[in-house]
Amino acid sequence: MKNIYEVQSSNKIKTIVITVFFLVFSFFSIYILGTAFGYYAGYETGGLGYVGIALIFSGISTFISYYYSDRIVLTISGARPANSKEDKLFTSVVDNLCIGAGIPRPKLYIIQDSAPNAFATGRDPNHAVVCATTGLLEKLNRTELEGVMAHELSHVKNYDIRLMSIVSVMVGLIALLGDWFLRTTIHGRSRDSDNKAGAIILILGLIFAILSPIIAQLIQLSISRRREFMADATGVALTRQPQGLISALSKISADHEPLEAANKATAHLYIVSPFKAHNPERSRRVDWFSSMFNTHPPMPERIAALQKMA
Amino acid sequence: MIYLYIVLALILIWLISTYNFFVSSKARIKASIQEIGNQLKRQADLIPNLESSAKGYLTHEKGIMQLLSDARKLVSAGRDASKQISEVLPKLQILVESNPQLKADGVVTNLMDELRDTSDKVMYARRLMIDLTADYNVKRVSVPSNIVANMFKFDELKGLETAEIGDHMTVSSAEMKSPRINL
Description:
The structure holds 2 protein chains of 2 kinds. By secondary structure, chain A is mostly helical. Chain A is built from 11 helices and 4 strands; from the N terminus they run αααβαβββααααααα. Chain B is about 70% helix and about 0% strand. In chain B, helix 1 runs antiparallel to helix 3 (about 105-140). The chains are: A mainly alpha, B mainly alpha. The interface between A and B is medium-sized, with 13 and 16 residues.
């Protein structure tokens, strides 16, 4: 039995630990790749130039998706704005929760899709967007909807979109560097280096070029899963009704309809992963392995964590 | 020497930010108390109006129901009088009624939704005040921010004033039975 405050602070500490580990790892692999690049190109400090170019590439693309995230996602998923007359339940529930959370009311949108799901995006609480599917609004009662919306507003309040953007800049940077390194070393003409240290660096660079993008992505996913737990806890701290979110989550996960508007780029935003498991009766070991590649923690774990708070 | 300056600068930054946390928390708590008042005022304005309009509709519908049952009585009285005719006719009676659509359930559901929404709003306004006060009070007593709190005499805030002893802190045997609902 843990109370909400303990859950929140342990989630906070775990996020910090993972993020620091991630930063150390990315700086280390960027350093290795940069140095290896330098050796390969023949001038030792020049490798940092490649890092700079990669940083600019990955930074610009993520900055655009971060700054315009609300508009991009809404265009992709084809959502329409909610109004307080037709979607009274939705708007009034979010209104009330915003009073409790002390944040401005986000823009509300509705996706025409019978699969129940919801997501939040936007760079800060002033530019936040919360989106729900028509399926969610039809299938959940008021208490359950409050639980889901409190979860989404917690993502907004905890600046999760900002955190995940910074992380994805680093992942993009490492992926770009690794990709360039592999391309130039495979397609470029090989030069004989009589320097032993240079050879080691080159081999290290090769290993890092292959492995570090995958590792960086795995850490990114584990941060994403940690933030889901955090949003569950913060949401319950707001509604004080874990049962509402528990029954909403079990309703949503029992629904096996896939969400048509979702794609891989927006999957991590949703309250429940929009891609449903194809075969629920898989062996445990496969489950553990595949869960490393998921944006969301497995549903039984989330429900168990919530039940501890109840 | 330069390290000393860096440490001093860091301490100063921490001091300023902690001080600012306390004063901004106080201002936010004040605003959240005003928000409670705001929501209570909305409730006080809204509920009597909703009540009277729902009442108006319900009495209107009650009148319709009265008229309907009167009409039914008349029809059945008429049927008794025409018994002789119906003996002649095959024993087949079709009663066609065209009732006006009654919307009382919708009106009552709407009223209940509004009532829940309003009390939720007031409850969440109080929740914000309670949360902000709790954050402030926790920071006030925990190390190291308590140094700043003591230095500038930031007092404990009461939040939602609730009696700490009384019936709500004890459970009587009557309250331990699960309630039955009789409609």
